[in-house]
Amino acid sequence: MGFIRIVVSLLNSTIIIKVMMERSEQFLQQIDRFIRKIAEKFPVSEETSLITDIHVKSNQDTGELIAYNDDEEEITRVTIEEWINYQDENFFDEAATVLRDELRKNQDLVNNMGILKPYSFVLECEDDKNDSAELYIADDDTVILGGDLMPGLDDDLNKFFEKLTKE
Question: Which residues lie closer than 8 Å to 160 by C-beta, 6 or more apart?
């Protein structure tokens, strides 16, 4: 089982206990090395690569973190010890947060890769190719560092659609 940390916060007089991945130095170095290996595959040159996404797939059973290009060709992989058999139900949300933080730390490197812009890093569910999280989007003058730009939009749209169908 991986290392965890417990965060307790107070929201509207309700105590919220959240179990999160502990970020050891070795853990962060592995993620950093993973990002650097991806960047090494796309050095800055006169001919830029035409890929649009770098797909990142994480497996909480094996601890593997694998990067693929648009053609599903493997770019690099690493095994994250803390992720092996990590069974928390929020694994992908927490993995996305960790990856976003590390991409943000390496923003200069990632934003200057030899890839034709725009391009993005996308975290995918381990079972299929449905995107689970947009990690990083780079466009010539715009860089969006992950997260939902409009949190709750899906819920709002679903409620709106339900209201329309009832009328």
Answer: none
**Cα–Cα nearest to 42, from 139, 145, 119:** 119
Question: What are the tokens at 102?
Answer: 């590390």
Q: Which two tokens stand for residue 59?
A: 């497996």
Hey, which bits of 46-128 come out as E strands?
53-58, 64-68, 74-79, 119-124
Q: What is the pLDDT of residue 153?
A: 61
Six token digits for residue 14: 């309700």
What's the pTM?
0.69
CA–CA separation, 110 vs 160, rounded Å? 38
Residue 61: name the closest of 90, 85, 87 by CA: 85
- Distance of CA 86 to CAs 22, 36, 74, 81, 112, Å? 12, 25, 24, 10, 33
- List residues bridging with 53 in a β-sheet: 120
CA 26 – CA 23 distance, rounded (Å)? 8
Strands 119-124 and 131-139: antiparallel
Q: Around Cβ 138, how many Cβ atoms within 10 Å?
A: 21
List, for residues 105-122, the tens digit of each pLDDT value: 998 898 888 888 888 899
Structure tokens at 86: 């990590």
